[in-house]
Design brief:
alpha/beta, globular, 8-stranded mixed beta sheet, AlaDH/PNT_NAD(H)-bd, binds nicotinamide-adenine-dinucleotide
């Protein structure tokens, strides 16, 4: 069977779902692989590199393949070009791509959403949310260091001592922990806060100081956080205000699944920061952790520059694509028929498998994924 690598068409998307280095993993499973010409351009991979790796550049890749892999959901136009019975693998958020999901359903396409791979141990190697959050968290710390017009590390020189920057990180999930680790490596003094009890130990294991606000913790299901009440949110903001006023750089990465990002920092809190301070809000696209942040631009609030993240993994398209492609290879491997009788390169997802079932969005002309169906129908 044939797997196509789609050329991304969304504005600002520079990643690609398969990198030349990993094409051999798919051909070794017995698949033919092709790419839409120019698919790797945003991530600096050429058609020649794909061809050398065994993936044929083909303008009819979408029409003539059984499985199409992409980062963003395929456009409605691309979906209508797929052959009957085709499968797609991509991120596929129903709330942000309702037309795409409806078209996948109506065209009889079987589609899988990478963000719905369950976060169980067996699926860790397919966890694209984590791989992309890792890239985003690193990038946030680098952006903060780049915007700040002072050193992150302590410098002891013959001309005197320069004190290290104070960095505060709010939200210590995958992205936050990576931001902490990166800021620490650059030598900053890092303090961090998260509403989950387990996060304090993880923050300390990265060498940062865990901020203890002595508030009740908010554990949800599956290792995620629970939403705050407005009263809890207000108390958290009051208690965090002095830490933020003292920070040279503030990095926010807080999220609650299925909800708008929680507002952790008001404009009044940012206004208390010192001249030259920097705020990096990774959650700007999903509502913002910081009042006044704008996704994709730098706003000025009080004395601070407030940087709002927009498709942050796309700012490091090479490594982000490499990690995403490995997630895709791993999920396609799971969905490939095995056993002595199996014909190599046969795509045969087993819907009794929790990973396959949970990540399937559309199948047999219907929306298979219950939360997506509930949000759209
Ligand atoms: P996420 O992107 O949903 O949220 C980011 C962080 O924001 C979380 O740590 C959350 O607790 C925090 N947060 C939410 N509301 C907050 C608030 N009001 N104030 C401060 N912080 C707030 O989370 P994520 O990074 O995807 O992962 C969260 C959890 O999932 C972690 O426990 C992580 O270890 C776990 N996880 C498990 C697996 C796996 O088992 N395969 C994979 C990845 C992550």
């Amino acid at each position: 069977m044939r797997i196509a690598v789609a050329r991304e068409t969304r504005d600002g998307e520079t990643r690609v779902a398969m990198v030349p280095e990993l094409v051999g993993k798919l051909t070794a499973l017995g698949y033919d692989v092709c790419v839409e010409p120019g698919a790797g351009g945003g991530a600096l991979f050429t058609d020649e590199e794909y061809a050398e790796a065994g993936a044929e550049p083909d303008p009819r890749a979408l029409e003539d393949s059984d499985v199409v892999v992409s980062v963003q959901p395929l456009s409605v136009d691309a979906i209508r070009r797929l052959r009957a019975g085709a499968t797609t693998v991509s991120f596929l958020p129903g709330d942000q791509a309702p037309d795409e999901v409806a078209n996948l359903r109506d065209c009889g396409v079987t589609s899988f959403g990478m963000e719905f791979v369950p976060r169980i141990s067996r699926a860790q190697s397919m966890d694209a949310l984590s791989s992309q959050a890792l890239v985003a968290g690193y990038r946030c710390a680098i952006v903060a260091a780049g915007l700040l017009r002072r050193f992150f590390p302590l410098n002891m020189t013959a001309a005197g001592t320069v004190q290290p920057a104070e960095v505060v990180v709010l939200g210590a999930g995958v992205a936050g922990l990576q931001a902490i680790a990166t800021a620490k490596r650059l030598g900053a003094v890092v303090r961090a806060y998260d509403v989950r009890a387990a996060a304090a130990e993880e923050i300390r294991s990265m060498g940062a100081k865990a901020i203890d606000l002595e508030l009740e913790t908010l554990e949800g299901t599956g290792g995620y956080a629970r939403e705050m009440t407005e009263d809890r949110a207000a108390r958290q903001r009051d208690l965090l205000a002095p830490y933020i006023a003292n920070a040279d750089a503030l990095i926010t990465t807080a999220a609650v699944p299925g909800r708008q990002a929680p507002l952790l920092v008001t404009a009044a809190m940012v206004e208390q920061m010192k001249p030259g301070s920097v705020v990096v809000d990774l959650a700007a696209e999903s509502g913002g952790n910081v009042e006044g942040s704008i996704a994709g631009s730098i706003a000025t609030v009080g004395n601070a520059q407030v940087w709002g993240g927009r498709n942050v993994p796309s700012q490091m398209p090479g490594p982000a694509s490499r990690l995403y492609a490995q997630n895709v290879v791993n999920i396609l491997t799971l969905m490939t028929a095995t056993g002595e009788a199996a014909v190599p390169g046969t795509f045969a997802p087993d819907f009794d498998d929790e990973i396959v079932d949970s990540s399937c969005i559309t199948k047999d002309g219907a929306i298979h994924h219950e939360p997506t169906r509930a949000s759209l129908e």
